[in-house]
Amino acid sequence: MILDKIVTYKKMKVKKEKEITPINHIISSIENCKERRNFKRAFEKVKGLSIIAEIKKASPSKGIIKNNFNPMEIAIAYTENKAEAISILTEDKFFRGDNSYLNVVRNVTSAPLLRKDFIIDPYQIYQSKILGADAILLIVSILSKTQLIEFQKIARSLGLFCLIEVHNRAELEIALEADSEIIGINNRNLKTFKTSLSTTENLIKHIPKSKIIISESGINTRQNIKFLETLGVNGVLIGESFMRASCINDKFKEFRGE
Ligand SMILES: O=C(O)c1ccccc1NCC(=O)[C@H](O)[C@H](O)COP(=O)(O)O
């Protein structure tokens, strides 16, 4: 499965990163980090769904999505359209992301930033902090429950929020047992790459109302947004639709029904 390939590569990559910048160097520079932005507050909207707009050059399922890719310009367009948060794919091999994008984007927006990567080692959590993230993604399917609890604890100690991603009921139970507060339901089946909003429809019934719920992947139309709103999600994470849009402003208007 694709996640196994990504995790194998990630382990090798993190090993190299640790050799170049040891963890004690990272920890000692954390006190110089800029103030965090409140990722959770992005979902406390009174009306309509919050949008986490993603900066995504490529993906394992689609290859290159955007050719003339300029993360700074995309972030400016997201900010002009008042995206409640911005997600930045930093994974380099499969998504053509880069760690440097976080800082580039941070300088042109005041929106809270989610680092979208494949976190399998505490090193990456400390690294996310100094790179300029306000929140990190933790994917339940690539972590043990013990790791999930430990990683959330480290993130909280650094003032980072966590978006906990689940694909099915078993993963959701782990997220709830780990007391995760922001839960992302990923609509993409990672075996077939097909997306279906019925994943959100099926899982949301089992999530207490006190949690913040984000629906991720395969959200392309106003109809999709309206449907997810009826289900009671708090926010949506959208990448490819924005990347393929000829005009990002128009795409926001369409999603918001303006
Ligand atoms: O996008 C993929 O093909 C993919 C494959 C394997 C693991 C993760 C993948 N995507 C990460 C994401 O979760 C999406 O980038 C995000 O939810 C936005 O999805 P979309 O709006 O469909 O681009």
UniProtKB/TrEMBL annotation:
Pathway: Amino-acid biosynthesis; L-tryptophan biosynthesis; L-tryptophan from chorismate: step 4/5
EC number: 4.1.1.48
CDD domains (UniProt xref): IGPS
SUPFAM superfamilies, sorted: Ribulose-phoshate binding barrel
Domain Indole-3-glycerol phosphate synthase intervals: 3-254
Broad enzyme group: lyase
GO molecular function: indole-3-glycerol-phosphate synthase activity; phosphoribosylanthranilate isomerase activity
A Pfam family it matches: IGPS
BP-aspect Gene Ontology terms: L-tryptophan biosynthetic process
Catalytic activity entry: 1-(2-carboxyphenylamino)-1-deoxy-D-ribulose 5-phosphate + H(+) = (1S,2R)-1-C-(indol-3-yl)glycerol 3-phosphate + CO2 + H2O
Keyword set includes Lyase: yes
Record key words, sorted: Amino-acid biosynthesis, Aromatic amino acid biosynthesis, Decarboxylase, Lyase, Tryptophan biosynthesis
Domain of life: Bacteria
Protein family: Belongs to the TrpC family.
Name of the protein this chain belongs to: Indole-3-glycerol phosphate synthase
Organism per entry: Maledivibacter halophilus
Lineage: Bacteria, Bacillati, Bacillota, Clostridia, Peptostreptococcales
